[in-house]
Amino acid sequence: MKTTFALSALLAGSAAAFAPAPMQKTTTSLNYDAVDELPGALAPIGLFDPLGFAEKADGPTLKRYREAELQHGRVGMLAAVGFLVGEKVEGSSFLFDASIKGPAITHLSQVPDGFWALLIIAIGALETRRAEVGWVSPADLAPDSPGTLREDYTPGNIGFDPLGLKPDTEEELLIMQTKELQNGRLAMLAAAGFMAQELTDGKGILEHLGL
């Protein structure tokens, strides 16, 4: 975002995810039946779950919840940055036609038609890759147990780490995973707030900030 900028950044990340890179399976002792020991559960609150989703979920279900939270958090981080950068460069030919202007939530409707084809292909490729790495093939599942994650799969880890930031120790990895979750949660709230504000008065976020 330019709304477009965040999506373009997502495309770039998606393409990079398919670059030849060693696939590293994570051996982890995370216990998805002990929710207060999971990444993102911080003292003194522990796992923040006011609606009791975790209490009603078994280990595999909670693992799927965590996978969904991570993916939405990552998109939220791209979106929050994209709102601000997109509005900052609007009116230039940085990405598309310089005529793309206005609040970030309107940018996507102004992009060239070809962008949609690229977007669909990139998202389809990324989701196919994630499904192959993290999910048990439907052919190997019973009809009443769809959507099962592999036992040796750590949510969010599809082997994409081009900068080599993944820690070597389990303790440091837990800290990094918690940081990613916390930033992703904040970013989802921020992106939702940006959209709500722009829908309310039709003004861009940077305009509100006087920037």
From TrEMBL:
<comment type="similarity">
    <text>Belongs to the fucoxanthin chlorophyll protein family.</text>
</comment>
<feature type="binding site">
    <location>
        <position position="185"/>
    </location>
    <ligand>
        <name>chlorophyll b 2</name>
    </ligand>
</feature>
<keyword id="KW-0732">Signal</keyword>
<dbReference type="Pfam" id="PF00504">
    <property type="entry name" value="Chloroa_b-bind"/>
</dbReference>
<feature type="binding site">
    <location>
        <position position="180"/>
    </location>
    <ligand>
        <name>chlorophyll a</name>
    </ligand>
</feature>
<dbReference type="InterPro" id="IPR022796">
    <property type="entry name" value="Chloroa_b-bind"/>
</dbReference>
<feature type="binding site">
    <location>
        <position position="197"/>
    </location>
    <ligand>
        <name>chlorophyll a</name>
    </ligand>
</feature>
<dbReference type="GO" id="GO:0010196">
    <property type="term" value="P:nonphotochemical quenching"/>
</dbReference>
<feature type="signal peptide">
    <location>
        <begin position="1"/>
        <end position="17"/>
    </location>
</feature>
<keyword id="KW-0934">Plastid</keyword>
<comment type="function">
    <text>The light-harvesting complex (LHC) functions as a light receptor, it captures and delivers excitation energy to photosystems with which it is closely associated. Energy is transferred from the carotenoid and chlorophyll C (or B) to chlorophyll A and the photosynthetic reaction centers where it is used to synthesize ATP and reducing power.</text>
</comment>
<dbReference type="GO" id="GO:0016168">
    <property type="term" value="F:chlorophyll binding"/>
</dbReference>
<feature type="binding site">
    <location>
        <position position="183"/>
    </location>
    <ligand>
        <name>chlorophyll a</name>
    </ligand>
</feature>
<dbReference type="GO" id="GO:0009507">
    <property type="term" value="C:chloroplast"/>
</dbReference>
<dbReference type="GO" id="GO:0016020">
    <property type="term" value="C:membrane"/>
</dbReference>
<dbReference type="GO" id="GO:0009644">
    <property type="term" value="P:response to high light intensity"/>
</dbReference>
<keyword id="KW-0602">Photosynthesis</keyword>
<protein>
    <recommendedName>
        <fullName>Plastid light harvesting protein</fullName>
    </recommendedName>
</protein>
<dbReference type="GO" id="GO:0080183">
    <property type="term" value="P:response to photooxidative stress"/>
</dbReference>
<feature type="binding site" description="axial binding residue">
    <location>
        <position position="74"/>
    </location>
    <ligand>
        <name>chlorophyll b 1</name>
    </ligand>
</feature>
<keyword id="KW-0157">Chromophore</keyword>
<dbReference type="GO" id="GO:0009765">
    <property type="term" value="P:photosynthesis, light harvesting"/>
</dbReference>
<keyword id="KW-0150">Chloroplast</keyword>
<feature type="binding site">
    <location>
        <position position="69"/>
    </location>
    <ligand>
        <name>chlorophyll a</name>
    </ligand>
</feature>
<feature type="binding site">
    <location>
        <position position="72"/>
    </location>
    <ligand>
        <name>chlorophyll a</name>
    </ligand>
</feature>
<feature type="binding site">
    <location>
        <position position="179"/>
    </location>
    <ligand>
        <name>chlorophyll a</name>
    </ligand>
</feature>
<dbReference type="GO" id="GO:0030076">
    <property type="term" value="C:light-harvesting complex"/>
</dbReference>
<keyword id="KW-0148">Chlorophyll</keyword>
<keyword id="KW-0437">Light-harvesting polypeptide</keyword>
<dbReference type="InterPro" id="IPR001344">
    <property type="entry name" value="Chloro_AB-bd_pln"/>
</dbReference>
